[in-house]
Amino acid sequence: MRRTHPERTLEAALEMQTIAADGATILVACSGGPDSVALASLLARLATRHRWRVILGHVNHHVRESSWQDEAIVLSVAARLGLEARIVALDADAGKDEARLRDARYAVLARLAADAEASVVVTAHVAEDQTETVLLALFRGSGLRGLSGMPARRRLAPGVELVRPLLQVGHKLLAVELGASALPYACDPTNADPAYRRNAVREALAGLREGFPRLDEAVARCAAIVASELAGDDLAAARRRLRATLEQEVGLRDVSFERIEAALGARRGRIHIKSGVEVIKEEQRADARVIRRED
Length: 295
Fold this sequence. Notes:
The protein has 295 residues and is α/β, with parallel strands linked by helices. The chain has helices at 6-16, 34-50, 67-81, 98-116, 127-139, 144-147, 171-181, 197-211, 215-231, 234-250, 257-265; strands at 25-29, 53-60, 84-89, 120-122, 153-157, 160-163, 269-274, 277-281, 290-293.
């Protein structure tokens, strides 16, 4: 049986994001939780290849008594990985409101990045986080912008970009990295507090994933499509043109996303769509213009 190499899968996922230019300074938002510690381990490993200066940034919210332990874990992780760590404590009056805490945390991270001359702040948001974000937006009656979920990249402050390279990666894959690294991590007890809306959604999703094991993959794909459509990028336009051509010329509707992406991603040649139908790409370009029925 062929051996799998999950660490290579994770590294490839990060490399595809082009997190930062070679030689750049990167600030990793590290809460001390398992996902952010795994991300720190991955970026520390890639730092040599890209000549990155990687710094761990930790924001202490002081919302629970054990928050000092999170600081200690981040410092321990930084020491074991040979990285610098910078820690800032929020004022006690920040309260427990999720939105206020998030805004305050990003403001601190932006300041830490500017002080360190870091061009990007990298967070460990994963596929499950994206699913929760999209569903919360749906429950609020959000428009398309909300349904696009968290963007993989956005401007955080002048000269600083926020990057989320793990939105297509799940907790289980990161757990493999975490186990291999043998680094310490903390489990946030507030993740089980039903007073937080995100936790209520998380609990409901746990049951749904048993019947729909690819749920997070599907939601992440949907969010990416919505974001692409809103941005009006070339790929979104190519998807629409190909679907329209398939419907008009051979009467095909509801072609799977995977088939459409395979056709658009191919360099050239024939791509099977359905029995009796294939797409022919004659040049290396975004569009797959020619459709014909097989003999």
